[in-house]
Amino acid sequence: MKVTFPHMGTMSIPVKTLLTELGLDVIVPPAITKKTLDLGVKYSPEFACLPLKLNIGNYIESLEKGADTIIMGGGVGPCRFGYYGEVQKDILNDLGYNFNMIIFEPIQGHWKEFYKSLKMLLGNISIMKIKTAWEQAWVKAKAVDHINRLTNQLRPYLVNRKEATKLYNQGLTMIDNANNIDETRKATDKIETRLNSLEQVQGYTPLKVGLVGEIYVLLEPFTNLHIEEKLGELGVLVDKSVYLTDWIEEHLYISIFRKDKNRRRIAELAKPYLNYFVGGHGVESVGEAVLYSQKNFDGVVHLGPFTCMPEIIAQSILPTVSKDLDIPILSLSVDEHTGEAGYITRLEAFVDLLARKDKKKEKII
């Protein structure tokens, strides 16, 4: 069995470790490029959202490298993500590929289906081996999120902001290559030390911008055109509302062991504007925007795939949030036609708007 999976940001690093430690032969899809996108666009329905198209591109590239088993997550609710696995399976079958697709449905209410998928993937394997593999993968997931946060916090203060991105990418490689938990932690500490040693501009106070929206677009740099890096190099401190480990904790740990207090808090913040579940991260996009206002952030950028229903609902509500709470919000929808030049121009204009607003606030104070 040669297994593969779709990319989503840095997810491939812990997932590869998990599957390898479980004794599986893993084929990681090539990094997402225009070729990946072109393949997905060519063979996917025209009005399917961008993540589905990129998944198809990932799968085709992996199947061409010899993969015979695809691992895919499932979903519930109005978001079309719950249909991805079946739709993608039909597309690839029509193209003549021979493979197995194992879909892991959310554990909430789907224990039997989850166990059946796990059994299909792993067969008879000891609980201890699963525990050891999970621990190594989890430490890597925490490590990549940690250096991502640190890079976003430090980049606007640096004399050479591009140096932070260079070190961040080096850190991802070091963590990916680590063979055990101890090596992972040493690699994380080494990159953290190097990042903290970079020369900083004295007395600089950056603008602060929060990123909200659909998780795939938030986490996958190819789809959001490296927005964290671009804003950071414009001198902006960037904070994401969702990280990979947050999503794992929410859908695995919390669903099994405890209720998600943070998610309930976000839902409460969103309630004056959106008081029912609309699928995906629609409610979270609204609630997190309110939270960023409470944290005195200068602005919010809302990201989502074109045609994404939950984010379209959030996008229609966010102007009211912006007006009520006096926080500028920029909504950006992305698909295969999104041009980088226009995208950057909108980001630069938004940052200029925040800077002018900040200067006016200083004069009032």
From TrEMBL:
Q: The organism sits in which domain of life?
A: Bacteria
Q: Does the record carry Transferase as a key word?
A: yes
Membrane-spanning ranges = none
* Keywords on record: Kinase, Transferase
The cross-references to Gene3D superfamilies, in alphabetical order and at most eight, read: 3.40.50.11900
One Pfam family this sequence matches: DUF2229
Q: Where does the record place the DUF2229 domain?
A: 15-71
InterPro entries, alphabetically?
CoA_activase_DUF2229, Dehydratase_Activator_Redct, FldB/FldC_alpha/beta
A GO MF term: kinase activity
PANTHER family in alphabetical order = BIFUNCTIONAL PROTEIN [INCLUDES 2-HYDROXYACYL-COA DEHYDRATASE (N-TER) AND ITS ACTIVATOR DOMAIN (C_TERM), BIFUNCTIONAL PROTEIN [INCLUDES 2-HYDROXYACYL-COA DEHYDRATASE (N-TER) AND ITS ACTIVATOR DOMAIN (C_TERM)-RELATED
Identification of the protein by name:
Putative nucleotide-binding protein (Sugar kinase/HSP70/actin superfamily)
Q: Which organism is it from?
A: Orenia marismortui
